[in-house]
Amino acid sequence: MISILRAGVARGGIELRQTLTTGTDLFTYLFPALLLLGTVFFMRNAHVPGTTFSLGASTLPSVLGMGLAFGGLMTVSQQLVVEREDGTLLRAKATPNGMTAYLIGKAVVVGGMTLLSLLLQLIPGLFIVGGSLHVSAVGWLTLAWLIPLAFLATMPIGAVIGSLFENPRNMSLAILPIFGLVAISGIFYPITALPGWLQGVAQLFPMYWLGLGMRSVFLPDSLEAVELTHSWRHLETFGVLAIWVVLGLTLAPAILRRMARRESGSAVAARRERALTTIGR
Fold first, then answer.
1. pTM value?
2. Which conformational region is residue 87 in: left (phi greater than 0), alpha (psi within -120 to 50 degrees), or beta?
3. Average pLDDT over residues 187-200
């Protein structure tokens, strides 16, 4: 097991270095961060309803939580679909314990780039919103369990989503519902402004809880008043994310094994042929 872990970490390290030195990959990770910083910039002079606190400062921690969710859900699923089509997954399957090492490597590269994106949003964002945000000792402890839970709760589900699509062009079928969850999860505006049934839907998914957890880390306790139940709900945040961890780690291995069994040279060739036919039209 140690050798598999070592191979997976080495694979992820190589991919991470390649990503950091490839302009297209860097643009894919950094451009969304720039867009979100622009959103925070234009919201900086607005206020959270019923308070004098900057809406931009309130939104920045939520955006950081959304970034953690997107790293696990979107990036993992998109890379899995692309590497299934180009044969990378088939090559991993053909080597002993290759699929396990592949998934460990994917966790390393996606986790590394997601944390880098988080820092690239956080550091300039602190300058944009001024001195409105701070992290207490309790906040650092919250980050210590929130970030690992964020990856464990979202990456397996991202892998499951990616295993459902053979064609990268069909990923929009998954992207649209995820953006819908962003809209109702209190990322850009307090969730208390939404109808009760939408609040209930949002609380079923990790996006809301990651945003709430990051707000609890960076925002003053006085902002608890604009949250549901007027509290940061740390126990509920941990519990819901833990349920998603168990769900993901239960479903993902079985679904990925089933997908890997169906991979073959002929299947990869057929997907390439369909892609070439589509491009030629």
1. 0.87
2. left
3. 90
